[in-house]
Design brief:
The structure holds two protein chains of two kinds.
Chain A lengths: L2 E3 L23 E6 L5 H14 L3 E6 L9 H10 L2 E5 L3
Parallel strand pairs in A: 2-3, 2-4
Chain B lengths: L11 E6 L4 H16 L3 E4 L12 E3 L4 H5 L4 E2 L1 E6 L2 E7 L1 E2 H8 L11 E2 L2 E2 L8 H9 L7 E3 L6 H7 L13 H8 L9 E5 L4 E4 H11 L6 H11 L6 H6 L5 E7 L2 H4 L14 H17 L16 H4 E4 L10 H4 L8 E14 L6 H12 L11 E7 L1 H10 L3 H11 L1 E3 H4 L18 E3 L6 E5 L7 E9 L8 E4 L3
Parallel strand pairs in B: 1-2, 2-3, 13-14, 16-19
Antiparallel strand pairs in B: 1-5, 4-9, 5-6, 7-8, 11-12, 13-15, 15-20, 15-21, 16-20, 17-18
Helix pairs in contact in B: 4-6, 6-7, 7-8, 7-11, 8-11, 14-16
Classes of the chains: A alpha/beta, B alpha+beta.
Chain lengths: 91, 482
């Protein structure tokens, strides 16, 4: 029998429990994260209109550059100030 | 790793011998004399009754004493004071043994000198097994047992560890052998690897280097490359996540090129050389397996390129008319370095007729204008791999790197009117406010020249870069240490 060493980070990220899906967005705060790709704002402006129409409050956030992960402080701010988040990918 | 404290030797004189060694057999009577006159502990490797049955003979049945005390030759004579080794001599030498034991007249009936034999603890048939037995426990990675009916190469594919080509199964023996390529302990943290931002140990790098097919002597290059890739400047995360077909391109300089037989000549960017073809691959396997970066996951490359498998090559420093690439990056030529350049696939630059440096430089400029797109300027750097026959044009004319770059950069000023969005009926292009300006194709310091290739062929290569600067990836050079 061959035994090999695990080449991975052995992360198996502990499955984090997601917040329960809200029945409605009415009165909830939804964060919109712009990753700073061109025209992402146009897409998010439309999403914002739709969300407000559903009774949600919207908070807008923006990453400094799309090429790097969102800074930890920004992630924390979103986590503590929003009930849900939508990240705008690009391309 | 061997640790004498794990298997301490007794104080006083200690001799390590095996029966299957003519020199040990020769000195057997001498050992008895030493035992009788000043005392000695004889550690025997292969026969508990050799050199004789006596209370001063200890059988090293599992070779732990020999292995942990790094006995390489038998006979070895040691002096141990307060549990630690003070001195050792190997083989038989009448004069040295007399001096070591303080017994004049010792072994005068024997030849004056006989070399020893290899210790059983370094026997090639046993050394891997012993390394696993005695130091395997120092490795902390999870053990994965493969089923006995499983093909071990197929098992690596099945578990998602492969980049698409067969990998060498990373058994403990292979990983321990790989770790002999560095002085760093296996638990050392090398870098925090994106995209999962995981702390990666020397051990994890070694495992992936085994899988890539590296030899132990390549490991220092791989470790330095992992460090360089995971700096904030190089921004491996962005390079991985971009939809462009780019990856980390490794350029090796300094003495280590020769020590590990890297290719800087024929086909240096292609197949055929083990170091060139496995070192870059090892880095990519670390990103894949430790960092969790996989195509279609965080790796969003629309089409990718063969460079993403792992492109690594060495500079032909000796044949260049310029300073070395590492020197141009601020390093001494006696230092070994690895430079990581964020780039796409290599592309030919053809010129078979230029005989003057002016003509060749003009033609290079024409060919470089189209890197990535003729309409993109000031954002992406480039590597030029200049062939020996092209380099000869500059050597003959007495041009150095500074002269070449100054002439080339002057030829790479682009008229903004031609490349703004909409110009010539093409919607792609630079912003309108750049119209009316002369714009450099490459950012300052953005042309990297490396010399390499075989001595026949009027072809050089450009490797186009990815977004540079603070919002992209900056070329990074690291010194390679053991």
């Amino acid at each position: 029998m061959t035994v090999v060493l695990d080449p991975t980070a052995e992360l198996r990220p502990e499955a984090r429990e997601r917040v329960a899906r809200p029945e409605s967005l009415n009165g909830l705060t939804v964060g919109l994260l712009d990753i700073s790709k061109p025209r992402g704002d146009i897409f998010l402006n439309r999403v914002e209109e739709k969300l407000i129409g559903l009774g949600a409050n919207v908070k807008r956030f923006k990453k400094p550059t799309f090429t790097k992960p969102a800074p930890v402080d920004l992630r924390h701010e979103i986590a503590v100030s929003c009930d849900a988040v939508i990240e705008a990918l690009a391309d | 790793m061997p640790d004498p404290n794990t298997a301490p030797l007794p104080d006083g004189l200690v001799a390590v011998v095996k029966k299957d060694c003519p020199t040990c057999v020769l000195v057997a009577p001498v050992l008895a004399t030493i035992a009788e006159r000043v005392g000695v502990t004889v550690i025997t490797q292969d026969d508990p009754d050799f050199p004789q049955s006596a209370d001063w003979v200890t059988y090293d049945a599992d070779l732990a004493l020999s292995w942990h005390n790094q006995i390489e030759t038998v006979p070895t004579l040691l002096r141990v004071n307060d549990g630690s080794e003070a001195d050792r001599i190997v083989g038989w030498s009448q004069e040295a043994w007399q001096e070591f034991t303080g017994l004049s007249g010792l072994g005068t009936d024997l030849p004056e000198f006989r070399p020893g034999c290899g210790s059983l603890s370094v026997d090639p048939n046993l050394s891997d097994e012993l390394a696993v037995r005695f130091s395997g426990s120092t490795l902390t990675s999870r053990r994965i047992e493969l089923a006995s009916l499983e093909d071990d190469i197929e098992a690596m594919f099945d578990r998602g560890f492969s980049d698409g080509m067969p990998v060498v199964p990373p058994t403990e023996a292979r990983v321990l052998r790989m770790l002999e390529g560095t002085n760093r302990p296996p638990s050392d943290i090398v870098a925090v690897v994106p995209p999962d931002l995981v702390e990666c140990t020397v051990e994890k790098v070694a495992i992936n280097a085994v899988m890539a097919g590296c030899k132990p002597e390549y490991l220092p290059v791989v470790l330095s490359a992992v460090e360089a890739a995971c700096t904030d400047e190089f921004n491996m995360h962005g390079l991985l996540a971009t939809t462009m077909p780019v990856g980390p391109i490794l350029i090796v300089n300094g003495p280590i090129r020769h020590e590990i037989n890297m290719n800087s000549g024929f086909n240096l960017l292609g197949q055929g050389n083990r170091a060139n073809n496995t070192i870059g691959r090892a880095l990519q396997l670390v990103i894949r397996n430790v960092g969790g970066g996989r195509p279609g996951g965080v790796d969003r490359a629309t089409q990718g390129s063969p460079s993403k498998i792992g492109l690594c090559f060495a500079e032909d420093e000796e044949g260049s008319a310029f300073d070395t690439f590492a020197e141009s990056r601020g390093f001494d030529r006696n230092v070994s370095t690895v430079t990581l350049f964020p780039g796409e696939g290599p592309r030919l630059m053809f010129d078979q007729k230029s005989r003057s440096p002016e003509s060749l430089t003009k033609h290079f400029a024409e060919m470089l204008r189209v890197n990535v797109s003729p309409r993109l300027v000031m954002q992406m750097e480039t590597v030029i791999v200049m062939s020996p026959e092209h380099m000869a044009r500059y050597r003959d004319a007495g041009w150095d790197r500074a002269r070449f770059l100054a002439e080339l950069e002057a030829l790479l000023m682009i008229d903004g009117d031609d490349i703004v969005a909409g110009a010539g009926g093409i919607e792609e292009g630079m912003p309108e406010f750049l119209a009316g300006h002369q714009l450099p194709k490459f950012p300052p310091g953005g042309i990297h020249v490396v010399h390499g290739g075989s001595h026949a062929g009027l072809f050089s290569t450009t490797i186009a870069g990815w977004v540079g600067g603070a919002t992209g990836s900056v070329t990074v050079t690291k010194e390679i240490t053991r």
